Amino acid sequence: MPELPEVEIVRRRLLTCLPGLVLRDVTVNDPKVSEQSEAELRLLLAGRRVAGLRRRGKYLLVDLAASEPCTTDAGGPGEPGGPAVAVIHLRMTGQLVFLPGPGERPARFIWDLEPGTRLHFQDVRRFGRLWALDPTSEEAFFTARGMGPEPFGPEFTVEYLRAELHGRRAPLKSFLLDQRRLAGVGNIYADESLFRAGLHPLRAGGSLGPREARRLHTALLETLQAGIDHEGSSIESFIDPAGQRGSFQDMLRVYQRTGRPCRVCGTAVERVVVGGRGTHYCPRCQPRRRGMAPGPPPRR
DNA sequence: AGTGGCTCCTGGCGGC
DNA sequence: TGCCGCCAGGAGCCAC
């Protein structure tokens, strides 16, 4: 699943080839990929040159410069338009791949780029989304979604983390998956960060002492950075636009290692469901001490 | 306000 | 062997 490190790798790969190309046309094969119609997406995005690529949490942002006067476009008068931002969320299985012709499965949307390239959005589980924004509405877009701070940004300090954890009864695992508290962490990096911090996933957020909060802060940054350094985790279907796989999945210490020995102490890794998400931890390295959140409800 | 549960979606896999 | 049903999970939405 693409989380912050995977989206960052996609951004860096696209940065080597996308800027400077002109987005000639947008084709939508699956209307559910966007709240906006194909016509609206085309109007807002087509005819503009890619100016840059950014990332906010797990969102990929493609900056498009104002369209240039176009006299050669026989398909229409080429609506003059201002700059735009294309926002893409890969969710579970979204992939952006360059393909000269049709892919193995129909892309949910295709960008025709000039000169002569096509960027396909492939997405087996169809959770991914595309938005076309006016740059002036970008902040409102993310404010409406309650996006928390970037882990590597200046706002995410130990003090911020402690303040956000204060008084929370929800399990740490749920806290880390809440994009309103911190942007970009998903299931893999939440489990791995908690392992690195030596904190049980069911500990209540508010039960952490100052040292534990500091450990969690450090662990989050180290784990996310390690994910980026290893070019992401290729679990499920993550490949970057060049078809490269990451290697962080080989470094995982607890995620999807249920029953296998902890790489540190040899104790069998355990799995519980927290907030409906599979959660993996080492019962010895991540002891259930004080401030435990109530466990999952008994099975019906 | 904080929290948990449900929903979307499909390939893959376990069980019979 | 074949088929049915369940599971995974990011984020939006809703209920309490």
Structural class, from helix and strand content? alpha+beta
Overall, the morphology is elongated
The percent of residues in helical segments reads 10-25%
What integer is the average pLDDT?
A: 87
Strands of the widest sheet, in order across it, are 5-7-6-1-2-3-4-8
Low-confidence stretches: 71-79, 291-300
Approximate strand percentage: 15-25%
The H-and-E topology, N to C, reads as HEHEEEEEEEHHHHHEE
| Total beta strand runs | 10
Oligomer: single chain
Describe the largest sheet: 8 strands, antiparallel
Number of helices: 7
CA radius of gyration is: 21 Å
First and last CA, distance: 30 Å
Describe this structure in words.
The protein is α+β, with helices and mostly antiparallel strands and about 300 residues long. Helices cover about 25% and strands about 20% of the residues. The protein has 7 helices and 10 strands. The chain has helices spanning about 5-15, 40-45, 140-145, 160-165, 170-175, 185-195, 210-230, and strands spanning about 20-30, 50-55, 60-65, 85-90, 95-100, 110-115, 115-125, 130-135, 270-275, 275-280. The strands form 2 sheets. It has an 8-stranded antiparallel β-sheet with strand order 5-7-6-1-2-3-4-8, sandwiched between helices. A two-stranded antiparallel sheet has the order 9-10. It is elongated. The two termini are about 30 Å apart. About 40% of the residues are buried. Mean pLDDT is about 85; it is low at about 70-80 and about 290-300. The structure holds a DNA duplex (16 and 16 nucleotides).
